[in-house]
User: Which sequence fits this backbone?
């Protein structure tokens, strides 16, 4: 609104040229140009370059820019079993990872929000795993979940054995069908605390009088949670899903450190396949095509959110 | 207020998107190489002693490998004291990660002075054909290497009539390692054929001992095992033909090899996907498993773990065949200090260098006149066999096929370990061969 009135003012003002080049504005533009240029070249330029490479026949060490149309994409989606499996693995990972993080994070946040004693301590404990990198998480969980053999269990399986819970023993990340869940376990351990922190912040932002009013009207604690708290947490859920979503769609370090990537392995994800096919197999064009597909996935997650935010703003 | 807050949020999200995009375009940052002007070929003008920094790139970071490299550099410090040796080693079994790092460095115009590369197609197809290497003909002439390396090796390191790298060692891939005590306790003898192998395996299984230890957390190890099965089922000539196009991948013998492999997989440890090859060897050392099929770097592993009860025979069906691989060093175009690189190569190819490096690394020298030194019993017998055996190239270790093909082969084998679908895997092999431009 303010800027609109300004334009009206400048239109009628004889001082228009001076205002247009006012020093503040020049400085602002000068300050922003380097980063615009850098982003244009190093981000969008390279996205464009990757897109171009994905349409060529580059399948050896040195570039081969002969046009290949959409053949690389067609092959990935139609013939490449490893790629399709990696997409499926990633989809499973994303669903379980986000679901478990949201559920666990909300649970922890609601519990901590009960004015618990030593709340700060618990908050720190739950948030701590986020301080280590996915590589460390991966290596440690690989040790913990290493299944061992049938008569010589290791790690968690050994624990189960000694607690008389042998029926719980599982092949963990070696299970061809559901091994990805072992990776989810490690990822949730790391990120659930972060989700909790987001929810906790959201809970604290909800004015107490709203809940008080509901209680005065005779609502039970469960009803307060369901009808007052959760709807007001919706924006937090959306931000959390977007942040967790982009982590899970481009997961690479965790699967790599847990050594579950690779053909026909349960933790093979597009990011790992891209790395292997590009830098081990020299299929640069195919690798570029996978990179572009991953970018599109992440974009489909983020762009609608951006659009809705812009729209909300325009209405404001 | 909320207006500006929204904006912050949007900006934050945009930043996230940009970071994502940056990750997504990693592949593109390896823009085409600006091939630096050739600085090699001036060896004649080189001073008597080299100086400056010498950066050597390898994947020798642990155990006997690192010790072998250290043995070489110790000698190098006395012969060329003016050169500062820079060890750029990147960890990772079979060089899987090092090779990726090397590619980005080479394509980005920042080559090391020397790098480790497997002899054969990994050297020729990846680096020589695209014109990334310096020819080493002058060294081969001045050092007389064209007479001291066997013809089979000379053929593999040359292309278009030039020599491109210097082999430091020879490894054998097709070795069956067994625990002698376990075998004598159970009255077994080391198997020579697949039929004998399966008899032994059943006897071990009946005793509750894992017959065959496998550690394929890195998929190459499964590819390695199947490579020896292919070799044992098809024989040397037909196996070699698979990589040159004279043996079709649709051959019934390949089906038979897959069936043999499938049967073998019923005798391996259930947690094979969680172990590495040396952890699989630990099972044999501890007597929990009877055998493992792996390259002869197991010998160095046994030595390091002070295990002396190890027996070694050729893997089933491969007696008299040497499934060979070799670590070689070559000079890339654009190396900053080619003089020092040549000085180091002279040492690598010399009798002194080979006999310093190989006993520690646990491999045999590539030179026919080397072999004096502290070699283990196994290595002595391997040297004797090397002189008479039929030499075939290993695929998993870069000798038989170009990298793209070897990767596709390993992927297909890894798939087979999971789904055990013979027909599907065989058609994937065929497709990989077509993609490589060898089959039609």
Assistant:
């Amino acid at each position: 609104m303010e800027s609109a009135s300004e334009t009206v003012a400048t239109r009628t003002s004889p001082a228009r040229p001076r205002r247009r080049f006012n020093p503040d504005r020049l400085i602002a533009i000068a300050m922003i140009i380097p980063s615009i240029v850098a982003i244009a070249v190093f981000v969008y330029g390279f996205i464009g370059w990757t897109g171009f490479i994905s349409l060529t026949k580059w399948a050896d060490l040195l570039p081969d820019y002969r046009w290949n149309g959409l053949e690389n994409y067609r092959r990935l989606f139609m013939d490449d079993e490893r790629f399709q499996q990696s997409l499926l693995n990633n989809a499973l990972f994303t669903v379980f990872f986000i679901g478990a993080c949201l559920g666990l994070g909300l649970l922890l946040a609601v519990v901590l929000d009960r004015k618990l004693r030593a709340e700060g301590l618990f908050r720190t404990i739950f948030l701590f795993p986020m301080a280590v990198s996915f590589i460390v998480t991966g290596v440690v969980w690989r040790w913990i979940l290493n299944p061992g053999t049938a008569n010589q269990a290791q790690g968690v399986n050994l624990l189960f054995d000694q607690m008389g819970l042998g029926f719980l023993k599982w092949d963990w990340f070696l299970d061809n069908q559901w091994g990805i869940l072992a990776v989810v376990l490690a990822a949730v351990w790391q990120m659930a605390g972060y989700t909790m922190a987001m929810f906790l912040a959201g809970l604290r932002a909800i004015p107490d009088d709203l809940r008080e009013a509901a209680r005065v009207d005779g609502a039970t604690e469960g009803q307060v949670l369901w009808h007052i708290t959760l709807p007001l947490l919706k924006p937090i859920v959306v931000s959390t899903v977007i942040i967790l979503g982009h982590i899970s769609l481009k997961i690479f370090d965790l699967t790599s450190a847990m050594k579950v990537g690779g053909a026909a392995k349960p933790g093979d994800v597009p990011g790992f396949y891209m790395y292997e096919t590009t830098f081990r197999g020299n299929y640069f064009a195919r690798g570029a095509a996978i990179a572009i597909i991953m970018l599109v996935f992440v974009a489909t997650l983020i762009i609608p959110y951006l659009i809705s935010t812009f729209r909300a703003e325009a209405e404001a | 207020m909320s207006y500006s807050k929204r904006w912050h949020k949007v900006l934050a999200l945009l930043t996230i998107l940009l970071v994502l995009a940056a990750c997504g375009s990693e592949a593109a940052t390896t823009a085409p190489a600006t091939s630096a002007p050739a600085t090699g070929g001036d060896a004649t003008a080189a001073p008597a002693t080299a100086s400056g920094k010498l950066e050597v790139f390898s994947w020798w970071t642990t155990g006997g490998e690192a010790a072998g490299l250290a043995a070489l550099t110790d000698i190098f410090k006395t012969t060329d004291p003016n050169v500062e040796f820079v060890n750029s080693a990147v960890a990772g079994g079979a060089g899987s990660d090092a090779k990726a790092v090397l590619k980005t460095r080479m394509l980005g115009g920042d080559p090391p002075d020397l790098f480790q590369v497997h002899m054969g197609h990994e050297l020729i197809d990846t680096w020589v054909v695209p014109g990334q290497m310096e020819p080493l003909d002058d060294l081969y002439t001045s050092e007389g290497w064209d007479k001291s390396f066997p013809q089979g090796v000379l053929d593999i390191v040359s292309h278009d009539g030039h020599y491109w790298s210097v082999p430091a060692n020879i490894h054998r891939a097709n070795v069956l390692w067994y625990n002698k005590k376990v075998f004598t306790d159970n009255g077994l003898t080391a198997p020579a054929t697949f039929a004998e192998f399966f008899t032994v395996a059943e006897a071990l299984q009946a005793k509750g001992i894992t017959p065959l230890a496998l550690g394929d957390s890195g998929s190459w190890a499964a590819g390695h095992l199947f490579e020896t099965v292919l070799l044992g089922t098809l024989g040397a000539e037909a196996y070699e033909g698979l990589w040159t196009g004279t043996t079709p991948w649709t051959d019934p013998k390949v089906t038979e090899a897959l069936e043999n492999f499938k049967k073998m997989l019923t005798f391996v440890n259930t947690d094979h996907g969680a172990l590495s090859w040396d952890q699989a060897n630990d099972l044999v050392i501890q007597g929990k498993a009877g055998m493992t099929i792996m390259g002869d770097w197991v010998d160095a592993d046994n030595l390091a773990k002070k295990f002396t009860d190890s027996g070694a025979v050729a893997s089933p069906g491969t007696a008299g065949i040497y499934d060979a691989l070799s670590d070689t060093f070559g000079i890339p175009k654009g190396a900053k200090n080619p003089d020092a690189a040549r000085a180091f190569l002279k040492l690598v190819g010399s009798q002194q260098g080979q006999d310093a490096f190989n006993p520690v690394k646990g491999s045999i020298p590539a030179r026919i006149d080397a072999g004096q030194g502290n070699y283990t019993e196994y290595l002595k017998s391997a040297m004797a066999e090397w002189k008479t055996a039929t030499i075939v190239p290993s695929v998993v270790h870069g000798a038989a096929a170009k990298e793209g093909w070897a990767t596709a082969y390993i992927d297909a084998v890894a798939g087979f370990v999971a789904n055990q679908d013979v027909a599907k895997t065989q058609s994937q092999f065929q497709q990989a061969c077509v993609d490589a431009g060898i089959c039609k």
Remarks:
- Chain A touches chain B through 65 residues (CB under 8 Å).
- DSSP finds 15 helices and no strands in chain A.
- Residues 1-13 of chain A have pLDDT under 50 and may be disordered.
- The CA atoms of residues 69 and 136 of chain A lie 41 Å apart.
